[in-house]
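User: Quick one: structure for sequence A, then sequence B.

Assistant: Sequence A:
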Amino acid sequence: QGQLVDSGGGLRQAGGSLRLSCTASERTLSSYTIGWFRQAPGRQREFVAAITRSGRIDYADAVKGRFTISRDNAKNTVYLQMNSLKSEDTAVYYCAAARDEAHPYEYWGQGTQVTVSS
């Protein structure tokens, strides 16, 4: 209940693009800070990007200039557009929601696999 649904993962060659989507049936995502995280095999989960309720955006250094986070409030969806994919972007990607920047992320998606072949 109240969970997020993330989707859009797949297999791409290096240099390709993917767009991930995060939505929820029982929550209005515009009321939350939404973040994208990723976890590669054998590595800790890491922050990728976030967008606050006011629209402020942050990116991890590793994805700046290549990834874009955005909201479509009419569709209750947050997107992560990933361009110029690299093999090191291979991971399971998760979206998450927090009440605001002062609170931890408390609602999570199930994860979507992104695999980039070199």
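Sequence B:
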Amino acid sequence: QVQLVESGGGSVQPGGSLRLSCAASASIFSLYVMGWYRQAPGKQRELVASSIISSDRTNYLDSVKGRFTISRDNAKNTVYLQMNSLKPEDTAVYYCNARKILPDNVLRTYWGRGTQVTVSS
């Protein structure tokens, strides 16, 4: 089992910044990918950003490109999401996500409990 603990959510005005953190209970190098999803009220959960551990390749939702940055601290088994120029439409619960490849190539997914981000004037 891999536990993911998020922190850093909160309320901010439009144009502001927040940094989310997600600490994994396992070595980050045992994971295939870590990332962030979000879910706004009445909407489906969507991938915001992800980072493939072995290659450092990152992927972003089009609407956050240039504003959000995903990064890692491997020594702390932690992934971050730096969110700048926040917009009201970024308001959502943000979930940390990790995937691990188990024996027999089974892909296991882990989720954090989520942290609320509210962008409002």
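Residues 36 and 96 are 5 Å apart (CA to CA). The two ends are 40 Å apart (CA to CA).

User: Thanks, that's what I needed.
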